[in-house]
Each structure stands twice: as structure tokens, then as C-alpha cells.
Amino acid sequence: MSYLPDPATVSRRDEQPSAGRTRFVATGAQTRGDFGLFEVTMPPGGGGPGPHLHRTFSESFLVLEGSLAVLSGDQWTTAHPGDLVYVPRSGVHGFRSAGPDAGARFLILFTPGIPREDYFTGLVELTTAGRTPTTAEIDAFALRHDQLNLHD
Questions:
Q1: Cβ proximity of 67 and 82 under 8 Å
Q2: What's the domain range around 120?
Q3: What is the rounded average pLDDT for all residues in the chain?
């Protein structure tokens, strides 16, 4: 009997689903839970999540274009093309555009590959048709996806 390893998986750009400004390059389902890899395009002056943490997965950001402001603990830093920011499990972090004239394109790597696409898709659905969800609604939704939002 010969051993046949599992075949490689190819994720074609034109077949990758997206939610808002996030493209799901590889989901945890595609990688058997090893990792998730998403590409985010943030417009100049674009906002992102405020301080938060995840208890069951780490998150890394690789800036491809532009500049991204990333909160690490209680300090904001600006990441530029080629810079990698690693956030361990339970590490407090957030991200946003580095300024009103600065946009960014970056990758987010989640390990292990939890179904993080459910969070991004659900967040878009919460804000459809111009609806503005309350902070309590967003926090409860986020918590169901292992994101504990921290407020001052």
C-alpha cells in the first residue's frame, strides 16, 4: 500500500468570497483549521475596531500597501509596507487608518483557523440598509465570535 498525501488546496482570487472591504483568501474550513488569511482594503481615514482581544486565536497583520495604525497594549504604532504586527492570544489590540490621507491594504492571519469569516460577514449584515447598531448589539455580536471589545 502506498501513502498518498492530501492534495494542495488552491484558492483562486476570482472565487474567494468577501464581506465589505475584506476578502477571504483562505478560511479555516479550507485549511482544515490551521489558519485563516484575509485581505483588507482600508480607505484613507478608514476606521477599524477599537481596543479588543481574542482568547482562542492569535492575529497577525502584514501591511502590503499604505500605512496602518495598530494598537498594541496601550501604544499605537504605525506599520508600513512589509511590516508585520503579531498579536498573541488575549493581546489587547485594534487597528485603523494611519491618518485622514492614509489608506492601507493588508493581510490578517488568524491562527488557528477559526471561522472568522462569520464575524466579518455578520458585521456587514448588522450595518445593512443604513442601520446603525448600538454598542451593546455590536459587543454582544463580537463576543459570540471571541472578540471582547474593551471600552474606556
A1: no
A2: 18-149
A3: 93
Residue 54 lies in a domain: yes
pLDDT at 1 over 70: no
User: What percent of the chain shows pLDDT beyond 70?
Assistant: 99
- Smallest CA-to-CA distance from 68 within 22, 19, 23, 105 is with 105
CA atoms 96, 13, 83, 110: torsion sign: positive
Exposed/middle/buried for residue 82 (C-beta within 10 Å: 0-12, 13-18, 19+): exposed
User: Any idea what the CATH number is for the domain that residue 69 is in?
Assistant: 2.60.120.10
Number of folded domains that form the chain: 1
What is the CA 93 to chain-centroid distance, rounded? 11
User: What's the angle, vertex CA 19, arms to CA 58 and CA 51, rounded to 5?
Assistant: 40
Lookup: cell for 24: 477571504
Supply the pLDDT for residue 83.
98
Residue 5 lies in a domain: no
